[in-house]
Amino acid sequence: MKKILIAFDGTNFSEGAFEFARKMNKVSPILLSGIFIPQVVYDNLWSYASVEIEKPFYIPLVEEFEEKQIKKNIERFEKMCVDNNVRYSVHKDFFDLALPELKKETRYADLVLIGSESFFENIATTSSNEYLMDVLHATECPVVVIPEKYDYPKSNILAYDGSASSVYAIKQFAYLFPDLAINKTLLVYTNEKRREEIPEKKNIEELTERHFPDLTILKLNINPKKFFDKWLSEKESAILVSGSFGRSSFSRMLKKSFVIDVIKDHKLPVFITHK
């Protein structure tokens, strides 16, 4: 039985993320742990995010009524779990904590589910994307970022660029989702340098063919930062597997990841992990 975290911005509830968990539970029973993060004073978010998790600190809630809304969402979560025969737990001590506590929670979980449209949707678009990227980078287990309306995956798209991070993500996806690994799978190689050959082609073939029986390998001659999200938008009922958020915060400032564009499109789930 896997332990799955589902993280909500306390005043918003992601139906899409819960539906993904429900489908996982139908395949194999899970323990679903609900994490309800308050909407904090966003101007202070970055300084809080950089604090070591071992040092306790508190973040004030923006409005007192938010606690009541969070409690309503907890009740809603509990009822939906009971109605769908999902074993669950709720972390109710989250009202004054944010990113560092979430990071610690992910250390003891197999997977995190986050709704891409509802997670901190009240922040300005740029800031919410930056905060979501920080959350993805800080987690210590894989994450699936999920839109509200989507088809549960019937095919897989493995983003491979020759990096250790991309290979690690592919392996973690296969280990966590053996039921999805048997679906039609496309391993896509692309990078900005547009190298002639797929790096370590024999090795990546030997690895992926063991886990993905219906596998096709494709070399895509496009600039991923400019065109990958457009190419991907034509794929239906798929999940994207990527290791792109393994870079440091500094390098992400210098080189924008194409995956954030895919997430912003809200069209398909994205599986992300890093070492």
Task: Provide an overview of this structure.
The protein has a 10-stranded mixed beta sheet with strand order 3-2-1-4-5-10-9-6-7-8, sandwiched between helices. The protein has 2 domains: 2-146, HUPs (Rossmann fold, 3-Layer(aba) Sandwich); 155-272, HUPs (Rossmann fold). Helix 9 packs parallel to helix 11. It has 11 helices and 10 strands. The two termini are 23 Å apart. By secondary structure, it is of the alpha/beta class. InterPro entries: Universal_stress_UspA (IPR006015). This is Universal stress protein.
Task: Give structural attributes.
40% helix; 11 helices; alpha/beta; 275 residues; 2 domains; single chain; Rossmann fold
| Poorly predicted segments | 41-62, 122-126, 246-255
Radius of gyration: 19 Å
Structural class: alpha/beta
In the CATH hierarchy, what is the superfamily of the largest domain? Answer: HUPs
Number of domains: 2
Helical coverage, percent range: 25-40%
Mean pLDDT: 78
- Strand percentage, roughly? 15-25%
Q: Find the count of extended strands (DSSP E, 2+ residues).
A: 10
The SSE string, one letter per element, is EHEHHEHEHEEHHEHEHEHHE
Helix tally equals 11
The CATH topology name of the largest domain reads Rossmann fold
The end-to-end distance, rounded to whole angstroms, is 23 Å
Name the shape in a single word: globular
CATH class of the largest domain: Alpha Beta
Which CATH architecture of the largest domain is right? 3-Layer(aba) Sandwich
User: Quick one: biggest sheet?
Assistant: 10 strands, mixed
Order of the strands making up the biggest sheet: 3-2-1-4-5-10-9-6-7-8
